[in-house]
Amino acid sequence: MKLVTTHRLPEDAVRAISPDIEILQVAGEEALLRAAPDADAIIGGFGGSSGAQFERLVRAAKRVRWIHTSSAGVDPLFCPDFVSRDIVLTCAKGHAVGTLLAEHAFALVLALTRGIAVCARMKTWGRNSRAGRGVSELRGKTLGIVGFGGVGLALARRARAFDMDVVAVRRTPSDDAPEGVAVWGTDRLNDLLACSDAVVLTVPLTQETKGMFDRPAFERMKPTAILVNVGRGEVVDIEALIDALRNNRIAGAGLDVFEQEPLPDDSPLWDMENVVITPHIAGNSPDRAGRNLETVLENLRRFVQGRPLIGVVDKTAGY
């Protein structure tokens, strides 16, 4: 079996899984394409690449059966060749990034509800300023989570620790959610928007979620509610969001992802006191690589043994 990787893998750990695995580490697209034709498995960070780059890889990899990407977002990778072929794609969703995105989302919630966003811009001491008057507590409030996978579950656990009620929507409702968490189908998104004090987006980008948060969505939210997005930027209609913030239809926004990145210097969002912007860093951590390696090695073991892999991307669902 031939394994081609753009990441450094511990050879002793790979050999412990099977001494018959041939490992070839490459750097750069040209070297990857040269190594791909007889690869059985390919490991790399492909989520941030363009669809054209990934399609070139899939076309070159004539016999590949498994591809792993260290990225959590996979929407650029759904090229026709990949979708039509019997290739299993795994990614870093869940174990590798779930806690990171949940922590970052909750940090944005706290920055907005505790007045930190406003205080960070102030240069004077003012306990009775807008920052001091605008703070609120989370206890007894409702957190709405749009997209209840690994990130959503990790976020719900943190919200419950703050004595918040939690409602979530996902494609399939659930009766076995943690205590204090209601998981509804996406047909109840409007109910979630109406009752939530903070709405956090963790959904992947699909045809169904693109532009999901438009003007009607913001109009259904409480005027005292905040929006946090650590999922995909294209889920939010940015002009509708700016309009909602300017006209006080929502109270604030914490944003880590945008349809256009970097966010343009002339975006009105930069100057809004009730907006916290981070530059797509929710998934950053020095510990992430270690967790991704754990997933890769576990999947390599399963691949060799012919068992189902973990973190598999559903081609039908799009994530």
UniProtKB/TrEMBL annotation:
Q: Which InterPro entries match?
A: D-isomer_2_OHA_DH_cat_dom, D-isomer_DH_CS, D-isomer_DH_NAD-bd, NAD(P)-bd_dom_sf, S-Ado-L-homoCys_hydrolase_CS
* One Pfam family in the UniProt entry: 2-Hacid_dh_C
Q: Which Gene3D superfamilies match?
A: NAD(P)-binding Rossmann-like Domain
Keyword field contains NAD: yes
GO MF terms listed in the record are: NAD binding; oxidoreductase activity, acting on the CH-OH group of donors, NAD or NADP as acceptor
* Keywords tagged on the record: NAD, Oxidoreductase
- Kindly give the PROSITE patterns that the UniProt entry links to this protein: ADOHCYASE_2 (PS00739), D_2_HYDROXYACID_DH_3 (PS00671)
Domain of life per record: Bacteria
Q: Where is the D-isomer specific 2-hydroxyacid dehydrogenase NAD-binding domain?
A: 106-282
Domain named D-isomer specific 2-hydroxyacid dehydrogenase catalytic: which ranges? 6-313
Stated family: Belongs to the D-isomer specific 2-hydroxyacid dehydrogenase family.
Q: What is this protein called?
A: Uncharacterized protein
